Amino acid sequence: MNINRRHTLACAALALAGLSTQAQAQDAVRMGAVLSLTGSNATVGEDVRRAVALAAEKVNAQGGVLGKKFDVVIEDSGGNATTALNAARKLATVDKVPVVIGEYSSGITLPMAQYLVKEGVTHINIASTSVKIRDLGATSFNLIGLENLGNKFSAADAWALGYRNVAMLAPNNAYGQGVAHGFREEFEKLGGKILTELLYTQGQSTYRRELQQMSRSNPDAYIYTAYGQESAVINREAFELGLRQKPWYAILLSMSLSDTPADIAKGQLGMEVGNVYGDAGKAYAEAFAAKYKEGMKTSYTGYAYDAVMLTAAAINKAKSAEPAAVQAALKEIGKGGFVGVTGPIVFDADRQRIDPPYAKLKFDGKVVPR
């Protein structure tokens, strides 16, 4: 066989392969997700990935979307804003998905979502709590309680526990700055005092200097919020320094303890966004445990599950996967016609969830209600 002949056949094979891949894509309706599968929040990201997969399975078991298979294209942010932005760009321009959910950290979600909104792609926030989420624009929807509500809840809870003079630690990013400012504001309204407030730099190998500085103010309790792997270092060093003789209260407890050994985490209290609700929530928790042979590690899986189910319902309602049609359907469903595993989902005029759930928790071998 001559070279030209082989080249022609090779090109034909590649073309057929391309057509086959394209045909397979056309046989499925797809949405996107950007998750922290590597980096400091990898434990949370993997937990959420499992929920996304479980939801997609449920949709397909119920007949799929628009009579086709329903797929979620998942991209890893690596816990990095630039990587997340590139992932969102791929989902919008290559995969051409109508909806993207994620990320986790507000400092990553905000620029990623701003890009999606600019492109007219639907964004659904499932974990980030910065109040700036409200200002993302007309194609962004939010399922979770933001800092203004969370700070009010955690400050009231800490006050009810008898804490009056506290030291506070949070990451030095959009999320941590919002929590530190908001908690202080709400706690001082109640009569409490923040004796020491520190914003830590992410990725440090040790936080002993910050912990020792906090301890010198002799607080009633330590209030903190931290990402999983960093929190594991903070909690271990606090334990070694003897700081656990005072109460430790975590804002977003499941996130803060996701990578901390149980013997060190034991006895911590905190708050969290609400996880599962009612019969639907119970069924979801049971299905999750049955599939993965363990329960959920964080409270964010339910929001991811609801986002996938909500997207599928909106596409079916719109009878189209075009972003504008899906957005209109989400608004209609969000008037009160959807009960998720995290409870009823109703959007206000700015596409923010009305009355998002919160929970008071403790760690007793695992994160449980108190």
How would you describe this protein?
The chain has 370 residues and is of the alpha/beta class. The chain has 2 domains: 28-145 and 277-357, Response regulator (Rossmann fold, 3-Layer(aba) Sandwich); 148-275 and 361-369, 3-Layer(aba) Sandwich (Rossmann fold), CATH 3.40.50. Helix content is 47%, strand content 18%. It contains 13 helices and 14 strands. The strands form 3 sheets. A 7-stranded mixed β-sheet has the order 7-6-8-9-10-13-14, sandwiched between helices. Helix 8 links the parallel strand 8 and strand 9 (248-251). Helix 3 runs parallel beside helix 4 (106-118). The model is unreliable at 1-25 (pLDDT under 50).
What top-tier CATH class of the largest domain fits best?
A: Alpha Beta
* Count of helix runs: 13
Q: How many strand segments?
A: 14
Radius of gyration: 22 Å
Helix content: 40-55%
